[in-house]
Write a structure and sequence with these properties.
The protein contains 3 helices and 3 strands; from the N terminus they run βααββα. By secondary structure, it is α+β, with helices and mostly antiparallel strands. α1 packs across α2. The model has no long low-confidence stretch (mean pLDDT 89).
């Protein structure tokens, strides 16, 4: 698993990755419904804060977002 520095990505590519993640995950936001644009903004803020990473798995050729802790555990599991 490889971390992709989000700052190196073109703005449109980054937006497409975030939007695809939000659509795929169908995240539950509790009692209040959160609109799509707000979800995208929240994910972008998490990336900028370093809480979430964009990752690429060469074996599956898939890109996804993981929390920093999930990424750390995936690296340890492969060691």
């Amino acid at each position: 698993m490889i971390e992709i520095p989000f700052k190196r990505l073109d703005k449109d590519i980054l937006t497409a990755i975030i939007e695809e993640f939000v659509l795929r995950e169908g995240t539950d936001y509790g009692a209040h419904e959160v609109d799509f644009d707000s979800k995208v903004s929240q994910v972008r803020n998490q990336l900028e804060a370093g809480e979430v990473l964009i990752t690429f798995d060469p074996k599956t050729e898939n890109c996804t977002l993981l929390t920093r802790e999930q990424f750390r555990k995936s690296i340890l599991a492969r060691s």
